[in-house]
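Obj: model holo form, ligand = guanosine-5',3'-tetraphosphate.
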Amino acid sequence: MKALKDKILAEGTIIGSKILKVDSFLNHQIDINLFNEIGKEFKKRYANQEITKILTVEASGIGIACIAAQYFDNVPVVFAKKHEAANLDTDTYEVDVFSFTKNKTYKVRTSKKYINSNDKILIIDDFLANGNAALGLIEIVRQAKAEVVGVGIVIEKAFQSGRNVIEKEGVKVESLAIIESIKDNEVTFQMSR
Ligand code: G4P
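Output (holo C-alpha coordinates):
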Protein backbone atom coordinates (compact mmCIF):
# COMPACT_ATOMS: atom_id res chain seq x y z
CA MET A 1 0.00 0.00 0.00
CA LYS A 2 1.87 3.00 -1.33
CA ALA A 3 0.47 5.70 0.97
CA LEU A 4 1.43 3.63 4.01
CA LYS A 5 4.94 2.93 2.75
CA ASP A 6 5.44 6.62 1.91
CA LYS A 7 4.32 7.55 5.43
CA ILE A 8 6.71 5.01 6.99
CA LEU A 9 9.60 6.41 4.95
CA ALA A 10 8.67 10.02 5.76
CA GLU A 11 7.95 9.69 9.47
CA GLY A 12 9.19 6.33 10.77
CA THR A 13 12.30 6.22 12.90
CA ILE A 14 14.44 3.21 13.68
CA ILE A 15 15.41 1.96 17.10
CA GLY A 16 18.32 -0.51 17.08
CA SER A 17 18.14 -3.00 14.24
CA LYS A 18 14.61 -4.32 14.63
CA ILE A 19 12.14 -1.73 15.86
CA LEU A 20 10.36 0.78 13.67
CA LYS A 21 8.86 3.67 15.62
CA VAL A 22 5.72 5.03 14.02
CA ASP A 23 4.26 7.02 16.88
CA SER A 24 3.35 10.01 14.72
CA PHE A 25 0.61 8.16 12.81
CA LEU A 26 -0.01 4.66 14.21
CA ASN A 27 0.99 4.01 17.81
CA HIS A 28 0.45 7.28 19.62
CA GLN A 29 -0.92 10.05 17.41
CA ILE A 30 -3.34 8.62 14.83
CA ASP A 31 -3.65 9.74 11.21
CA ILE A 32 -7.36 9.26 10.53
CA ASN A 33 -7.11 9.78 6.77
CA LEU A 34 -4.44 7.11 6.55
CA PHE A 35 -6.46 4.79 8.82
CA ASN A 36 -9.41 5.16 6.43
CA GLU A 37 -7.17 4.17 3.52
CA ILE A 38 -5.93 1.22 5.59
CA GLY A 39 -9.54 0.19 6.27
CA LYS A 40 -10.41 0.35 2.57
CA GLU A 41 -7.35 -1.68 1.68
CA PHE A 42 -8.24 -4.41 4.19
CA LYS A 43 -11.72 -4.53 2.68
CA LYS A 44 -10.21 -4.89 -0.79
CA ARG A 45 -8.02 -7.77 0.38
CA TYR A 46 -10.96 -9.55 2.01
CA ALA A 47 -13.61 -8.65 -0.59
CA ASN A 48 -16.19 -11.40 -1.10
CA GLN A 49 -15.31 -13.08 2.19
CA GLU A 50 -17.96 -13.37 4.84
CA ILE A 51 -16.76 -11.64 8.02
CA THR A 52 -19.01 -11.30 11.05
CA LYS A 53 -16.55 -9.72 13.49
CA ILE A 54 -13.12 -8.17 13.71
CA LEU A 55 -10.89 -9.26 16.59
CA THR A 56 -7.85 -7.33 17.79
CA VAL A 57 -5.86 -6.76 20.98
CA GLU A 58 -5.47 -3.62 23.01
CA ALA A 59 -4.10 -1.01 22.65
CA SER A 60 -2.93 -0.05 19.17
CA GLY A 61 -5.11 -2.55 17.32
CA ILE A 62 -8.35 -0.99 18.50
CA GLY A 63 -8.29 2.21 16.46
CA ILE A 64 -7.27 0.38 13.29
CA ALA A 65 -9.95 -2.27 13.76
CA CYS A 66 -12.71 0.29 14.46
CA ILE A 67 -12.02 2.32 11.36
CA ALA A 68 -11.61 -0.80 9.24
CA ALA A 69 -14.93 -2.19 10.53
CA GLN A 70 -16.75 0.67 8.84
CA TYR A 71 -15.69 -0.81 5.48
CA PHE A 72 -16.98 -4.25 6.54
CA ASP A 73 -20.62 -3.18 7.01
CA ASN A 74 -19.92 -1.97 10.54
CA VAL A 75 -19.32 -5.46 11.92
CA PRO A 76 -18.61 -5.42 15.67
CA VAL A 77 -15.03 -5.11 16.85
CA VAL A 78 -13.94 -7.22 19.82
CA PHE A 79 -10.62 -6.54 21.47
CA ALA A 80 -8.75 -8.94 23.70
CA LYS A 81 -7.90 -7.37 27.05
CA LYS A 82 -4.45 -7.54 28.56
CA HIS A 83 -5.50 -6.71 32.11
CA GLU A 84 -7.99 -8.18 34.51
CA ALA A 85 -10.64 -5.69 35.42
CA ALA A 86 -13.73 -5.63 37.56
CA ASN A 87 -15.81 -4.79 34.50
CA LEU A 88 -14.67 -7.85 32.50
CA ASP A 89 -16.91 -10.93 32.60
CA THR A 90 -15.39 -13.80 34.54
CA ASP A 91 -16.31 -16.33 31.84
CA THR A 92 -13.54 -15.69 29.33
CA TYR A 93 -11.44 -17.28 26.62
CA GLU A 94 -7.88 -16.87 27.79
CA VAL A 95 -4.44 -17.43 26.35
CA ASP A 96 -0.82 -16.75 27.32
CA VAL A 97 1.18 -14.58 24.91
CA PHE A 98 4.95 -14.25 25.06
CA SER A 99 6.28 -10.87 24.00
CA PHE A 100 9.81 -10.96 22.62
CA THR A 101 9.97 -7.17 22.64
CA LYS A 102 9.16 -7.04 26.35
CA ASN A 103 10.58 -10.47 27.24
CA LYS A 104 7.57 -11.42 29.29
CA THR A 105 4.42 -13.48 29.09
CA TYR A 106 1.04 -11.87 29.51
CA LYS A 107 -2.53 -13.15 29.37
CA VAL A 108 -5.11 -11.91 26.88
CA ARG A 109 -8.81 -12.55 27.40
CA THR A 110 -12.13 -11.97 25.77
CA SER A 111 -15.54 -12.53 27.25
CA LYS A 112 -17.24 -15.69 25.93
CA LYS A 113 -20.27 -13.53 25.20
CA TYR A 114 -18.70 -11.79 22.23
CA ILE A 115 -17.35 -14.65 20.11
CA ASN A 116 -19.45 -17.66 19.24
CA SER A 117 -19.19 -20.72 17.04
CA ASN A 118 -21.05 -19.04 14.14
CA ASP A 119 -18.56 -16.19 13.87
CA LYS A 120 -16.21 -15.73 10.94
CA ILE A 121 -13.44 -13.62 12.33
CA LEU A 122 -10.91 -11.30 10.74
CA ILE A 123 -7.98 -10.66 13.09
CA ILE A 124 -6.37 -7.25 12.69
CA ASP A 125 -3.24 -5.87 14.36
CA ASP A 126 -0.71 -3.08 13.88
CA PHE A 127 2.57 -5.07 13.72
CA LEU A 128 3.55 -8.61 12.89
CA ALA A 129 6.93 -9.38 14.44
CA ASN A 130 7.23 -12.84 15.95
CA GLY A 131 3.56 -13.55 15.58
CA ASN A 132 2.76 -14.33 19.17
CA ALA A 133 0.00 -11.76 19.58
CA ALA A 134 -1.75 -12.95 16.39
CA LEU A 135 -1.25 -16.58 17.42
CA GLY A 136 -2.89 -15.83 20.76
CA LEU A 137 -5.89 -14.29 18.98
CA ILE A 138 -6.16 -17.33 16.67
CA GLU A 139 -6.19 -19.54 19.76
CA ILE A 140 -9.02 -17.48 21.28
CA VAL A 141 -11.09 -17.86 18.09
CA ARG A 142 -10.45 -21.59 18.13
CA GLN A 143 -11.44 -21.89 21.79
CA ALA A 144 -14.74 -20.32 20.73
CA LYS A 145 -14.99 -22.84 17.85
CA ALA A 146 -15.37 -19.92 15.47
CA GLU A 147 -13.60 -19.57 12.11
CA VAL A 148 -10.49 -17.46 11.45
CA VAL A 149 -10.95 -15.89 8.02
CA GLY A 150 -7.51 -14.30 8.03
CA VAL A 151 -4.97 -12.12 9.77
CA GLY A 152 -4.67 -8.54 8.50
CA ILE A 153 -1.56 -6.65 9.51
CA VAL A 154 -0.62 -3.03 8.92
CA ILE A 155 3.18 -3.45 9.10
CA GLU A 156 4.90 -6.82 8.84
CA LYS A 157 8.59 -7.27 9.59
CA ALA A 158 9.53 -10.08 7.21
CA PHE A 159 12.90 -10.59 8.89
CA GLN A 160 11.10 -11.95 11.96
CA SER A 161 9.21 -15.22 12.06
CA GLY A 162 5.58 -14.03 12.40
CA ARG A 163 4.31 -14.98 8.94
CA ASN A 164 5.67 -18.54 9.20
CA VAL A 165 4.14 -18.99 12.62
CA ILE A 166 0.69 -17.90 11.41
CA GLU A 167 0.81 -19.75 8.08
CA LYS A 168 1.75 -22.94 9.93
CA GLU A 169 -1.65 -22.62 11.58
CA GLY A 170 -3.22 -22.69 8.12
CA VAL A 171 -4.22 -19.02 8.31
CA LYS A 172 -3.62 -16.53 5.50
CA VAL A 173 -1.77 -13.30 6.32
CA GLU A 174 -2.40 -10.04 4.46
CA SER A 175 0.05 -7.25 5.34
CA LEU A 176 -0.26 -3.75 3.92
CA ALA A 177 3.46 -2.96 4.16
CA ILE A 178 6.12 -5.64 4.39
CA ILE A 179 9.54 -4.61 5.63
CA GLU A 180 12.31 -6.76 4.22
CA SER A 181 15.06 -5.30 6.37
CA ILE A 182 16.11 -2.49 8.63
CA LYS A 183 19.79 -1.81 7.99
CA ASP A 184 22.05 1.21 8.38
CA ASN A 185 19.09 3.22 9.63
CA GLU A 186 17.15 2.49 6.44
CA VAL A 187 13.93 0.61 5.85
CA THR A 188 13.67 -1.64 2.78
CA PHE A 189 10.28 -2.96 1.67
CA GLN A 190 9.62 -6.27 -0.02
CA MET A 191 9.58 -5.64 -3.78
CA SER A 192 6.00 -6.49 -4.63
CA ARG A 193 4.33 -4.93 -1.62
P1 G4P B 1 4.63 -10.43 18.22
O1 G4P B 1 3.31 -10.13 18.87
O2 G4P B 1 4.57 -10.33 16.71
O3 G4P B 1 5.23 -11.71 18.69
O4 G4P B 1 5.63 -9.30 18.63
P2 G4P B 1 6.32 -8.86 19.97
O5 G4P B 1 5.88 -9.72 21.11
O6 G4P B 1 7.75 -8.75 19.66
O7 G4P B 1 5.63 -7.44 20.08
C1 G4P B 1 5.10 -6.92 21.25
C2 G4P B 1 4.58 -5.55 21.04
O8 G4P B 1 5.48 -4.73 20.26
C3 G4P B 1 3.28 -5.45 20.29
O9 G4P B 1 2.61 -4.31 20.73
C4 G4P B 1 3.74 -5.25 18.84
O10 G4P B 1 2.71 -4.70 18.06
C5 G4P B 1 4.87 -4.31 19.05
N1 G4P B 1 5.91 -4.29 18.02
C6 G4P B 1 6.66 -5.31 17.55
N2 G4P B 1 7.57 -4.86 16.68
C7 G4P B 1 7.39 -3.51 16.58
C8 G4P B 1 8.02 -2.48 15.84
O11 G4P B 1 8.98 -2.69 15.07
N3 G4P B 1 7.55 -1.23 16.02
C9 G4P B 1 6.51 -0.94 16.86
N4 G4P B 1 6.11 0.33 16.92
N5 G4P B 1 5.90 -1.88 17.58
C10 G4P B 1 6.33 -3.15 17.43
P3 G4P B 1 1.99 -4.16 22.18
O12 G4P B 1 2.96 -4.32 23.28
O13 G4P B 1 0.83 -5.07 22.23
O14 G4P B 1 1.63 -2.64 22.18
P4 G4P B 1 0.32 -1.82 22.00
O15 G4P B 1 -0.57 -2.52 21.01
O16 G4P B 1 -0.27 -1.78 23.36
O17 G4P B 1 0.79 -0.52 21.47
